[in-house]
Structures
1.
Amino acid sequence: MRPFPNLLIVDDTEENLIFLESVIRKSKVNLIRALSGFEALERIEGMELALAIIDVNMPGMNGYELAEKINGDRLGEKVPVIFITASHIRETDALKGYGSGAVDYILKPFNYTFLQSKINVFLDLYNQRIKIIKDAEVLKKSIDSLAVVHAALKKSEEKFRSVTLSAKDAIITADSAGIISGWNKGAEQIFGYTEKEVAGKELAVIMPSPHAERHGNYISRVVQGGEYHAIGKTIELSGLHKNGNEFPIELSLAEWSTESGRFFTGIIRDISDRKRGEEALRKSEELFRSVVNNSLDLTTLTDAEGKIVFISPQCEKVVGYSADTFIGKTIPEIIHPEDVGRCQQMWEKVLNNDLEIKDYEYRIIDGQGETRWVSHSAKLININGKVLGIQNTISNITERKKAEEAIKVSEEKYRTMLNASPDGILIINMKGVITEVSDIAFELLGAEIRDDLVGKKITRFIPPDEKSMMHEIIERTLNEGLAQNVGIKIRKKQQTLFAAEISTTLIQDPNGAPLSFMVILRDISQRKKMETKQMHADRMANLGEMASGIAHEINQPLNIISLVMDKILFESAKTETIEYEFLKKKSDKIFENITRMRNIIDHIRAFSRSHEEYVLTAFDVNTSIENATSMIMAQFKHLGITLNVQLGRQIPQILGNIYKLEQVILNLLVNAKDAVIEKKNKRQDYFEMIIGVESYLENQLLIVEITDNGIGISNDDIQHVILPFYTTKDEGQGTGLGLTICYQIIKEMGGTIEIISDTVHGTKIKLLLEIQRKK
C-alpha cells in the first residue's frame, strides 16, 4: 500500500486544531499540526505536502505569509491551501491568498460535513496521482519492450530500405532536394495529409516553423546538405499535423542511391503517448520518493520470501530502532509476546490469500524496552500473478491509544455522573432522538429496558397539547444556549401523565457548532400540589387581610339602602300616599346597590375558590387590575395610602386565569402597602405613602407595573426574594411564599418578573407578558 499524503493544519487555537483533527480523523492522511507559522515551517521542512489548512489571522506570521513561505521555494506544483477565517475576506486579501496557493476560503464556524468534503477532494487527487504511479510503472515496462522492438526494427530498416507502405509508422521518401516522393498510410494517419496532398512538396510541411528555424529544418539539411553522420541514427523532433497541432516524433533516416540520384527514407513514429508516460513516470517517481522520505509513517518493502529489502528513514522514529536492524530479516523480533501469534496469522492471510491488510493494530517493544502501539497496513506486490513482495506501512499510534483510553475513562466518569444526578437526564441529538439516558430518567419515564427510550424521539413522551411548548423550549435553547425550569406535562411509557419541569442545555463543539441537547427532567407533581394548596391559602390570607376593606365595600351600599328606605317611610308618613315615580326611583336605587353587593360577594367567592383545574381562557388584563384594586381600595384609603391606577388603552387580551393574575396583583399591592407603612413608621417627618399600578405595551410585551415609594429591598436581599420561604418581614408577618407564588403564576402565563429596588426610591416590579400568547 502506498504511504498516505501529508496534510498540514495550522491554527493558533488548540481547540480549533482539535476540531480539525476530529474532522480529518477518518481520512487516510499523515496529519501534521502546528500552533503557529514558525512551528509549521519547522515541522514540514523538506516534506512534500498534499494539502495545507491554515488559519488566516495568527500572531507573528499570518496565514498568507506562511503560505508564501511554503510555496516560495518549491519548483514543482504549489501546495494547495485552504484558508480558514472568522471574518469576511476583502478582495485584495483574497487575491493575495490565491497568489500564495489558496484554493478555497472557509468561514468560521464551518460545517463538519462541508469541510470533510473539501478534504476528500484533495485526497481523491492524491489517489489519482498514486494511480498514475502504478500506470507509469506498467507503461515503463511497455516502453522498454517498445525500445527492444524499435531496435530490432531499426536494424531491419538498415537491411531493408524498402518497407511495405502499410506499416503503422510513417515512411517518407524524399530526394536530395527535400521534395517528398513517397508517403505511406502510416504517414497519412500520423500527419493527416494524403499522399496526393504532399507529393512534390518540401519536407518542411510537416515541421513546425519555430522548430524548423531552431533546427534549421533538420530533415531538409540532412537530405540536401549530406550530413551523413545523421544517417542511421534515431532522433527526437517535433512534427506538425495538418490541423496545426504540434506533437513529438521520433525519426530514423536511411540513405540510398539509384541511377537517378540520391534519396532518403525517413521512418517517423508519433511518440506522444510515450512522452506523456515518461513524464507521468518521472513525476510519480519523484512523488513516491518525496512521500516515502517525508511521511510520518514507516514504509518497508519485502521480497517474495518475506525478507525486508527496503526501509524508509522514519524507522527509528516509528519503532525505536535503526533501519539496519531489520534489513534482510523477516518478521522483526520486536512484536510484543502477547501479539506474536495473531501477527503471524495476519502474515499468513496476506501471503496465502492475496489479501490487503489495513490498519491492523498490535504492540511492539521499542529500543528502550517500552511498549508502543502501531497500525500496520500490508499489500502484496503482485504482477501478472507473480508475487514479488509486500509493501508495508507502519504508523506509531501510541498517543492515539492513550487518548482512546483516556476517553474511555472519561466516558465511564460521565456515565457515573449521569446516573448520580437526582434528576432524570436525557441526551438527545439535533433530530430530537434520545441517545443517552440516566437511571433516574428510566424510572421517571416508566421504561424497563434501554431500547424503550434510546433511539426514540423525545416527542413520543410529550402529550399533543404540550408539543408546541416542547418546540419552544428547543428553539429557545438553540437561540440562547439553555432554557431553565419550564413546566410541562410528560407522558410515561404506560401512557400516564405527570407534571414535570424541564431544563435544557445546548452542547456545542469547540467552534460553537451545535451537537446535541442535554435535558434535565424533574417530577414536580408533589410540588405542584403543595403550590396549589399554598396559593389557595395565600389567597384566603389576602382576603382575611382585606376583610375590613371588603366590609366597607358592602356596608356602603347597605347604608344607601337604609337611607332610601328612611326616605320612603318619611314621605309616606307625610302624605300617606307615595307617587309612583318617586317610589320607582327609590326602588331602582335599592336594587342597584343590592346588585352591587351581589357582584362583590360573587367576585370574592370566585376569587377564593381553588382554580387547580381551571381551563386557560382569554381575558382582559385591565379588568383583572380593576378587580384587584377594588378589593383593596377601601383599606388603602383608611390607611392614608394614595393609589394611582393608570391603565393603557387598547391593551390586548392574553391567555391565562384572570383570578390568578388578580392574586399576583393583590400580593404585590399588599407587599407595597407593608413597604410604605414601614418607611412611614421609621421617618419622623411627614411622608406621603404612594403606590402606583400601570399597564402599557412596550417592545411587543404587555407590561403591568406596580411601584411604591416604600422602604425598598437591599442589594443582599433582592437576589433571593423570589426564593421559597425567603422573607424580609419581621417574624410572624410573612411566609416568604408570596413572590414565589407570583413568579410561578406569571411563568405559567409565559411571562417573567423584573424587580428594581433600592432603599431610597422604593420598589418597582414589572410583570412582562408576551403578546404572542393572546387570542
Note: The chain has 22 helices and 27 strands.
2.
Amino acid sequence: MSKTLVVVESPAKAKTIQKYLGRGYDVKASVGHIKDLPSKKLGVDVEHDFKPQYEVMKGKQKVVTELRKAAEKADQVVLAPDPDREGEAIAWHIAEELSPATKGKRVFRARFNEITKKAIVEAIQHPLELNENLYNAQQARRILDRIVGYEISPLLWNKVRRGLSAGRVQSVAVRLVVEREREIEKFVAEEYWTIDARFEADQPPPFAAKLFRIDGEKAKVDNGEKAHGIVESLRKGAFTVTAAERKERQRKPTPPFITSKLQQDAARKHGFTAKKTMTLAQRLYEGIELGDEGTVGLITYMRTDSVRVSNDAIAEVRDYIATRYGKEFVPAKPNEYKAKASAQEAHEAIRPTSLANPPEKVKAYLDKDMLNLYTLVWNRFVASQMPPAVYDQTAVDLTNGPHVFRANGNVLKFKGFMEVYLEGTDAPDAENEEGVLPPLQEGDRPKLIELTPNQHFTQPPARFTESTLVKELEEREIGRPSTYASILQTIQDKEYVERREGKFYPTEMGLLVTDLLVENFKEILDPGFTAQMEKRLDLIEEGKHDWLKELHDFYGPFETTLKLAKKHMRDVKRQNIETDLKCEKCGSTMVIKWGRRGEFLACSGYPECKNTMEFKREDGRIVPVTAAETAEAAEGQTCERCNSALVLRKGRFGEFLACSAYPECKFTKPLKSQGQPEVVLGEAGGVCETCGTKLMVRRARKGNRYIACENYPTCKSARPFPVGVKCPKDGGELIERAGTRKIFYGCDKYPDCDYVSWDPPVDEPCPDCGWSHLVQKTTKRKGTVIKCPQKECAYERVVEPPAPAGA
C-alpha cells in the first residue's frame, strides 16, 4: 500500500488531519520553523547578494531526523503548513532538509484555509507547487528585519545600554506611542460652552435640543459670560419650529473578521490583548475535542486580511439565518465586501468552519475565553450576511431670534443584522442613539422647560490602547496582520512602553531611544517609509518586484546612514552633563547621567564620591529632589538603621523609599500612600465579591502581582495573581508568589500540591515531549529563551539572542 507523508507545523493540527485522512497517510508536525538565521551572528552575506546562512534551529534536529525517516518510507510528500508567506517559507525549508530522502519522489504543496475534512481532502487531492514568490517575500522581510535589528541594536548597546533593541517595525510602533504622548503634553485645553434645552410639545414625550447655529454659522460659545448672555436672551424670546425633516436611514453590517479587526473587537468587548486573541484563535483553528465527534477545527485560518468568503459558506449561513431568524433576515442577494488593495484574496475571512457548531452546542468543550472569542467570530460572520438595520430619523430645528437649536430622534424600525451583532467602539458614548421625538410641524411653538449652559474643555488626544494601536498600525499599513500581536508584546517586553489601566505610556527609555533613532535613522523610523516597504514586499509576493533588487535598494542608503550614526549618535552612556549644583558630600560638581531607570544626578568625583540623587526640571532649571519633598510620601519616616531621612527613588517596580545616606546605608522600604501599595498595574476584570467594585492588579512590595479590590485597604478582599497556566500535577492554577529572594510560581492548591516553577510559565505545550507548559528564561550567554522545564527534554527556542560579540 502506498504511503503519503503530510507535514504541517502544529502537533494539534497533525492530530486533527490524521483523523480526517486515515490509513495511507502519515501526518507529522515540524513544530513551526525548522530553519532560521543564526542567533549569534548577522547570518546574511551582504557582499554576495544577501545570501542567507540558514541553519537548523537549536532543538529542531530531532524533528528533522524524524521527518527524514518518515520521508524515506513514504512514496510522496505533501507540505501543508499555513497558507501564508510564513507557511510557504516553512514548507520551503522542510523541502530542502528532506531532499536527501525525497530524491525521485513527488513533493507537493497543499494549502487550505480551514481544518475540515472536506477542505483537507480537497487540498491533498489537488496539490500545488511551492510558490517561489511567496517564500521570497518572507525571506526578504526576514533579511530586512535581521539587518536593521542586528546593525542598529549593537549601536544602542554601545551608546545607551546593553540589551536594547531596534526593529524595522517595532521602533515605528514605539514612535507612534511617543508622538501621541508628546501631543498630549503640548495640548492646551480650550474652554467652550454648550447650551441644552428641554421642551414639551402638545403630545409626549418631552425632548431635548442643543444650540446648533447662531446667525447662520455653527454655534461657538467660548466663555461663560457669552453663554449666560445667550441664555438670558433666549428666555426673553420664544422658540418656533422652523424645520422638521423625517427620513429613513440604514445602518449596514460589517464584513466578517480579518485579523486586525478581530484583535480590536476582542480588546474592546473582552479586554483581550492581541497576543491572547491570537493564541485563542490558533487553538480554535487547529481543533477542539468535541466529544464523540473528535477533534474539530472550529474557525478558518486566523491570519488574514481578506474579507472574501467561499460560496459554500455563504449558502450555508443564508440557510442558517432563514431557519434561526426568519426569511426577512435574509437579504435578496448575498452581501459583498470590498477588500483593501493589499489584501491576499487567496485567503478567506475568519469565520466558523461549519454552521452546525453554534456556540451553545460547543460551550461545554470550551473555556470561558475561548467561548467568548468563538462567539464573537460566529456572530460577526452571521451578521455580515444579514440585511441592514433600518431607522426612522427625525431632525427638528427650533429658532429663537438668531439662535437655532436642533433636536434629533431615531426610532429603530427593523433590527436587521443588529439582531445578532454590533461592532464594539473605542468611544462607547459615541454609540448612544437619540430617543423618540413627539410629532412636530413647522410653526409649532413647544413650551420651554429648562435651559442649561454647560462648561466644557477640549480634551487631548487619547493614549493608545491595544485596540486603537492595532487600528493605527493597520490604517498606516505598518506591519502585517500576523505581526500586530508580536509587535505590541515586544515593545512592552523591551520596556519601551508600559501598559497602565489599558493604555500605552512611553517609558523614559522609550522616549530616549525613539529620539536617538529618529535623529539618526529618519527614513527607517518614518511610518510612510515602513508602509511603502510593506507594499514592496506585497509586490515581491505577486511576482512584480525582484526581492534581491529591493534588498540592494534598501541596503545602500542604510549602510551610509549607519556609518554616520556610529560617528554622530549621542553617546548617552558616557555623557556627563554638567550642572551648577554642588555635591553636598564633597563639593564637586553634580552631573546628569543616564541609568537603567532614567536620568539622575551623580557626583563628578566618582568613584571617590558615590553620591547620587533624583532631580526634576523646573522652568529649564535642574532642581534636586530633596528628602523634605518626600516627607509627605515617607510620612515623616526616617531610616530604621541610621536615622537619616528617607528619600524617593525609582526602581524596577516603581518608586520606593531609600536612605539618604546611601551608599553607606543601603536601607530601603516600599512606598505606601494612605496604606495602599503604590504600584497599581491596571484592571483585573470582574468585580469584588465583598463590595462589588472593580478588581485591580497590584504589585506587592516584594515584586509579585496580586488581585485586590479597588477600595483596598477599606475593603481587604485580595487573592493571588493567576498566570494563566494549569498546574501539571493536579490541574490547579499556577499563581505568582514571592520568595525570600525572587518571585516564583506555585500551585494554588498548596500545601496539598507542592509544584513550583522558578521561571515564568508559558501557556504552550512542549512540542517535543508534550509537557503541559514551557517556561521563559533569560541568561547572559543565551539571551531570552522559551524552553521545556523537563530536564530530560532539550526543546528550546531563542526569543531574544544575546549581544553580538564586540557589541
Note: The mean pLDDT is 87.
3.
Amino acid sequence: MLKKLLISVTMLITATTFAETVTLDSCDNPQSWRFSNGAEFKGARGKISKDTESEKIALEYDFSKGGKYVSASPKAAIPYGTEKIILSLKSNTKCRAEYRIVDATGRTYHGKTRIMLNGKPKKCSFRVNGSWVGMWGGQKGLKQPKFPLKSFTLLIYGNKTKPGKVIIESCDVVCNAQQKITFDCENFNLNGSGWDICGTWKKSASGPMLELKAENTGTATQATLSIDFPNMGRNHVQNYYLDGSKKNFTFSYSPFAFQARNPNNAYQLLISIHSSNGDYSRKKIILAGDKSDNINFGSPVKSIDIEHSTIGTCTHFSYAAKDQGPFRSWHNYRPLLDMISNAGIKWIRDVVYAKKESDGKYHTNPYDLEWIKYARSKGINVIVLLWLRPKTPVEEAKKYFEAIVMETKDLVDVFEVGNEPENFGFKPMYGGKWNGYAGNGKLDRWVHEFLKYSNAVTDHIKKVRPEITTIGLGAAPSTNFHLLNLGVTKNLDGVTEHAYPFALTPEKMPWGWVMEERDGIKTGDKNCTFVGLINSYAEQFKKIGKMRSLWITEFGFPSYLFNGKNEKKIYMGYSETTQAIYILRRFLLSKTLPIIKVSCQYDFIDDYNSNPFNPEANFGQLRTDRSPKPAYYVIQRMNSLFNGYSYDPKLLIKTEKQPLHKGMVYSRLVKDWDSAKIKASNEVMAFGFASPNKPAQRMIAVWSTQPYNGEASSRCCSIRITEGAPYKEPPVAIDMITGRSFDIPARVDGNDLVFDQIILKNNPIVIKIIR
C-alpha cells in the first residue's frame, strides 16, 4: 500500500514484564473528556471547561443546590496492562478526590483512595488493581477489573457552600507492554474559511494522538473543524468549533478513544472545515496499522497487472472510425483505453469491420486493427463480435469474417457470432415474435434461419482458425434454449447471454417458470433469479449432451431521466449511485458462478451524447464528456480487491440471522411483466473468495439484495463461517462504494468464525479475514 508517512506512533496493547509511563490525554481539550454531575444525588452542577491561565482542562463544580460529587472521564482508551492512572491535579479550594473503574464486563469498582486537595498542585496515583470500597454490576464475583477497561473516572467531592474547580494538568498511565503496534500517521495542513489548520501526530497511551492547531489568518469566519472516523454503521464525527473573533485554538484528538485498535487496518480519516456561509474544505489522511501493508484496500491496478479476470465492458470503437454520428465519443480510443486499463478491466467486446479492396478480397478496417493493437498493449483482451446480416449471402459472409479472423491472429482469440437476432437482421427480415415462439410448439421462421446462418459461419471460422474460442447465439434466454434444442453446431464453444434485468434488481431476471406459457419453454427458476437462470443454462447444456461455457456479453443499468414521456420504456431510469451499486452486485454474483467465463457491462462511455432522456444514451461508466460516474471508481476498486481472487466454494458461509423491520419488507418488484408478477428478494448474500497468492487471507463479499432506495438507515445480519476459526487476526471490512475501511467484530465459536452483528447499509462490503 502506497502511503506518505511522516511520523510513526507506537501504541501498547498487551501486558508483560516491563513498565512504561505514557500520556493518556494531553488535558487541553474539554471535548476529550466526559462530565457527570453524579446524577444519583440530585442537585450538583458543573462542567468541564478550559482554564484560561493554564490552557488545561478544569472540572468545575457547585453543590449549593445539592448533590454529592461531580466527575470527569477521559475518552481515550485505556491500554492493556495499565497498572496506574496518574493525574496532576490543582484545586482552587479544599476538596476530595476518589475514582472509579469500569471493566470489560461492565463491573464498576470504586477506589478506596481518598486524596485531599487544598489549592496546591498534586500528583495523584490511582491503582487499577486496588482496594475497593465498592463493587457492583458486570460479572459478579470478580475481585479485580478485567481488561480491556471501559473507563476511568475521577470523582470530586467539594464544599457544599463554595463553588470550585480542579485543574487537570496531565493524565498519564503506567502500563506493562508486550506487543507494540505502530501506526503510520500523516501530518497535514488544511486551509479554509480563513483558518490555517496544522495537524501533528504525537504518541499517547491509547495510540496516536492528533494535535490540531487552528490559526486565524485575519479573515476567519465562524467555522467547524470536523474529523470523520470510519466505523461500522455510523461513523464517529468529532467537531471542534472555531470562533472567528479569536486568533488561534489548540485541540487534541485521540481516534482510539472511540474505536478499537486494529493493526491490519488503514483508517481513512476525513478532516474538513465548513463555515456558516457555505465554505468547505476537506483533506483525507491515512492512519495505517503496522500490518496493513499486507492488506489490499483497493488501490487501482492496471489491466496488464491482472493475470486473470472475468470482468469486461462493451465498447463501440468500430462505430467511430469516421469521428461522426451518435458514437463519435469513441473515436479518440487511446484515452478511453487508458481509462479502461486504469480501472483494471480485462476484457472489451466490440464489432470489427472489413472492406473489399482493389485486390477483390476483404481486409480488416485499419482503424479497427489500430485500437485492437493498442488494447492488447495495455493487457486488455478483446472479444470481436461478428455481426450477422441475413441479406448477405452466407458464402460471402464466410469470406468477410475469414478476413477478420485471420488478420487479427495473435491479437484476438474469442469471436462472438451473431448479436440479438430478434432485434437485428433476422426477425426484422422474416417477421415473427421477439422471442421466436409462434405458439402450439412451433417457432418462427427467423429462429431457424438464424441458426442455419450462425452454424455455417461458426463452422467456417473454426475451420480456418481451429484454436479460437467461438461463442454466440445472443438471443433472449428462451430463444437460446430453443436454438440449443434445434441443434447448435458443436463448433460453438460458448453461449452468449445478454443478461439485462431491465427494471429489476441485479439478482433478478424477467425470466423464469412463470414465463413458460409465453415462451414455449421453461427457463430459470420459480423465483426469476439470475442464479436460477444461469443454472438452468447448465442444465440445458447437460440435457443436449455438450457442456459449454456461458459468456455475458451485455448487461447494464441506464442512468437516464424520466420526463413524463418515457416512463413506459422497458428499462428503469436508475440514479448514478444505484447504477454503480447494481453493476457491482451483478459482477460479484457472476463471480460465484463458474460457468460464466466473462461478464461484460454495457457499455464503457455513454452514446448519443448522453441524451438525458434516452435509455440507450446512459449505460456508460463515463458520460460522453469522459467524466466518470460513480460506477467507474466502484469497478476500479472491485478489480483491485479481487485481483487474484476467485470464488471459494469450500469456504462454507451461512447467513444465520437477517431480521427486517416490518416497514422494510418488500413483496414484489414488478406487478405485471407479461402478465407475471415478480417477487422482491429480501435476503442477504455472502460469498467467500480465496487467492493462491494470499493463502493466509480470505474475502467475504456481503450485500443486501433489496432494491436500493436509501429510505432505511441500515439492516443487520449475522453470518457463520464453518471451519473459520484459524482466522484469529482482527478482520477488516471495506465499503466497496466509498472505499473506506472499518473494523468489524467477530468471535470464535468452536471451529467456526462468527460475525454476530454486521450492520449493512446500502453498499456491498468486503470482509478480509486473516490467519
Note: The radius of gyration is 33 Å.
